[in-house]
Specification:
7 strands, 222 residues, Rossmann fold, 7-stranded mixed beta sheet, alpha/beta, globular
Length: 222
């Protein structure tokens, strides 16, 4: 899979597509945030509150933190990612979407290698994965992303715009999903994202696990 093309083109008659965050959404814990805190604790402590308060862009803050991490830590980051828990109901939700013929895109502002490590073979159930790649050939990690924009290392709005569908469903939990949620037709929000949307008076649906999302969409789409 590449980060700029789905596995197959979306037919013009496709009505819906699902765009799902990874960190803290597919995963139970904020795996990417946890990694940043472990491998760049001082800079994370300084910049993360600014990003959560939306005074500092993710594009700037996350890049600064990532590019402060020594490339020698690359292997440790992979090991850090192993064994992280996936939120309940994901497999059943993917089965449901497959039966409906609905594309499921993972859209992460974190590292692709973490998405692939945590999900294992399940990553192949996604129509596409959009995430940050890194170059570890120099002394420190260097960010590689072809979809920077809107203050994000991966512009989730730009990802959604690639799909010519009538209903764009967004699923997320935090500040990284804010722009995507504002532009989506239907939004499933929890934690910080729900608070941000409350402030903006943007309608959203509360959810706890993917069984909740599947139940609501099943009723809506039927």
């Amino acid at each position: 899979m590449t980060d700029d093309q789905p596995k197959s083109p979306v037919p013009a008659n496709r009505k819906r597509a699902v765009f799902c965050d990874f960190d803290g959404t597919i995963t139970v814990e904020e795996t990417f945030v946890g990694m940043l805190k472990q491998f760049a604790p001082e800079l994370s402590a300084k910049l993360m509150p600014e990003m959560y308060a939306r005074r500092l862009s993710l594009q700037s803050g996350v890049r600064q933190i990532l590019e402060s991490i020594p490339s020698a830590s690359y292997g440790e980051i992979i090991e850090f990612s192993r064994g992280k828990s996936i939120r309940s109901g994901l497999v059943e939700f993917l089965d449901f979407l497959n039966a409906k013929g609905v594309h499921f895109m993972i859209v992460s502002g974190g590292l692709r290698l973490m998405v692939e490590t945590v999900m294992g073979d399940l990553v192949n159930r996604a129509s596409a994965v959009y995430a940050v790649d890194i170059d570890a050939s120099g002394p420190t990690l260097q960010v590689i992303s072809e979809l920077e924009g809107d203050g994000e290392l991966v512009s989730k709005v730009r990802v959604m715009e690639k799909y010519d569908v009538l209903e764009r469903v967004a699923i997320g939990d935090s500040v990284t999903d804010f722009n995507m949620a504002l532009q989506a037709d239907s939004v499933f929000a929890r934690d910080r994202l729900a608070e941000y949307l409350e402030e903006q008076q943007k309608p959203y649906i509360k959810w706890d696990n993917f069984f909740d999302v599947m139940e609501i969409l099943s009723k809506k789409w039927n």
